Amino acid sequence: MLRTVNRVLLGLTGLTLFCFGLAAVAAALDLPDRWGISPPSWWSWRAPDDVLLTRADRTRWRDEGWWWPMIIGGLAVLVLLALWWLLAQLRRQRLGEVFVDSGDGMGALLRGRAMEDVVAAEVEALPGVERARVTLVGRRNQPRVRVGLLLSPQARPGVAVRRLRGEALEHARVSAGLAALPAEVRLRATKRTAERVS
To answer: I need a surface site. Which of 24, 42, 62, 74 has the fewest CB within 10 A?
Structure first.
């Protein structure tokens, strides 16, 4: 969800800045007058010498009783939303523990870091895999795995992914007693350096 919020905020901010930039260029080049387009009546920026907010616009509501509480309330809401967004960015997305159903009705908790280390060690033992980075995300009773594989130049990606799914992830799923263990795998290959011939 946080990724979606970030994309929506970034898109809205970009669209708003783009529209204001176009309006500024159009007013500075006097394009509405040249092209015979009349801006809306509420739009005060019509010619290159105009300002976006006139003095009358800036001071029109200052003496109204509702003006300052509305401004302070709106700014407070913006500050709270910005703080929520910042805390959401800093929040740890890594899963701290996984719930293991022990069959006695009580269950047990397995440290997420321990499970990550075991899966990474098993994946790195596969042929063609030079390094593996494993991260558990999601909820503790429905974890998901993110795996980053660094493959050697002679590795076969299809074989590596099949063995990752059929061996390392299946062992982790069975040992934790999970019904499913979805995974997202990202592959990268090491750069082959040219061999020096003497």
So the answer is: 42
3-state secondary structure of 120: helix
Model confidence pLDDT, tens digit, residues 168-182:
899 988 888 888 888
Beta strands in 5-160 (DSSP E): 97-100, 108-111, 129-139, 142-151
Total-model pTM: 0.51
Give the CATH H-level superfamily of domain 97-189.
Dihydrodipicolinate Reductase; domain 2 (3.30.360.10)
Q: Tokens 């719930």 appear where?
A: 99
How far apart are alpha carbons 118 and 182 in whole angstroms? 17
**Domain residue spans of the chain:** 2-90, 97-189
> What is the amino acid identity at position 115?
M
Cα–Cα distances in Å, from 82 out to 4, 89, 187, 198? 16, 11, 35, 61
